Amino acid sequence: MINKKVANVTEAMEGVKDEMTLMLGGFGLCGIPENAINYLVKMNVKGLTCISNNAGVDDFGLGLLLHKRQIKKMISSYVGENDEFERQMLSGELDVELVPQGTLVERCRAAQSGFPAFFTPAGYGTEVAEGKEVREFNGKMYVLEEAFKADFSFVKAWKGDAAGNLIFKGTARNFNPAMCGAAKITVAEVEELVPVGSLDPNQIHIPGIFVQRIFEGKYYEKRIEQRTVISK
Amino acid sequence: MLDKIGIAKRIAKEVKDGYYVNLGIGIPTLVANYVRDDIEVEFQSENGVLGMGPFPFEGEEDADLINAGKQTITTLPGASFFDSSMSFSMIRGQHVHLTILGAMEVSEEGDIANWKIPGKMVKGMGGAMDLVASAENIIVAMMHTNKAGESKLLKKCSLPLTGVGCVKKIVTNLAVLEVTPDGFKLLERAPGISVEDIKKATEGTLIIEGDIPEMVL
Lengths: 232, 217
Prior knowledge:
The complex is a heterodimer of chains A (232) and B (217).
Chain A: H1 9-12, E1 21-24, H2 34-43, E2 48-51, H3 63-67, E3 71-76, H4 83-90, E4 95-98, H5 101-113, E5 117-120, E6 134-137, E7 140-146, E8 150-160, E9 166-167, H6 176-179, E10 183-193, E11 213-216
Parallel strand pairs in A: 1-2, 1-8, 2-3, 3-4, 8-10, 10-11
Antiparallel strand pairs in A: 5-7, 6-7, 8-9
Chain B: H1 4-12, E1 20-23, H2 27-31, E2 42-45, E3 49-52, E4 75-81, H3 84-92, E5 98-101, E6 105-107, E7 112-113, E8 116-117, E9 121-122, H4 128-134, E10 138-141, E11 153-154, E12 169-171, E13 175-180, E14 183-189, H5 195-200, E15 206-207
Parallel strand pairs in B: 1-2, 1-5, 5-10, 6-11, 10-12, 14-15
Antiparallel strand pairs in B: 2-3, 3-4, 6-7, 8-9, 12-13, 13-14
């Protein structure tokens, strides 16, 4: 067993510097690496390029980094829940690349899998395809999209072990698996770090080979963005 | 004239037995409530769930279980979870049979705009561009006109496009229309709405053949 366990978030975040490109898992506030984000705020690293489906809300998730102007550029598919984001983008303070959601995850997965680029139909005929190579296959038009290049990938899983194996829960899986191994260093935080050997190898979602550092996170808030319920 | 629930009820009739369906945010989400209960349908949400159920009872909501609109949900027996990459494999690979989504504008050529108003609203396209570029069957749920009373069914879209030549059918508060090579073909009128009302509210080419029946909800 190759040990990936680090003592805490401080050790896990070693090497993160200004001007780096970071991938961050999560969909909305579901499955976001809360410990890593909070530590980035504390580190006060600046000029970051963040690849993340969403940009958090005003006072949680990546919204905390935006608030402190730590982010130079966001690469996302949907940023509608964050007023500060929209303000910084429309005023030109923040550089934004909006990417179709399926393309966004595939650009991560391509980096993980060693593909430099791929063709997708998403965005053909729209401003997303401007300046990109397009090609026809079987009578349909496709756009060439390139793999991301990132320094760190921060993901969050439900359970993990010191070998770096990960299991996700519910829809908190989302972008996290495709970001594992898609950056130079992948840091996984888990709700529960279990003894090696206690996870069933049949049930592992991400094998430890894609993870360089793993630690058990603390104080998960797991905030719900749109609590929607029916009465009994 | 239909309200949002009426639009959802009419679209629900387009959902057939054995369909995997992706519902967009807004009116499309309501469609799930009105699908016939004697057919088998599974709802896919692009954040990574197939077999979505109703919203949870109060106190039973789970932060790790949401739909693409970030609302708390439940799952039904036979449901599955997966990552975003596999989710878009289902969509791009045309394994999802029907996509229902909202729009700001639709053109008579089937172009759709629903993600951006330059200089004003820039929320992002989310999964909409992947969905419209791939789905074989796309139904748009929207109001026939915008808040200023202007038609949303146009010769050409004025807003940045989400996809080209992809919309097949549109259900509005006034009508059901099909996108054909010659323009918007009027299929049904909403209760209490005349063909004349629909003509007035449609900027794009409207094709009217024979008597246009009133919708049955």
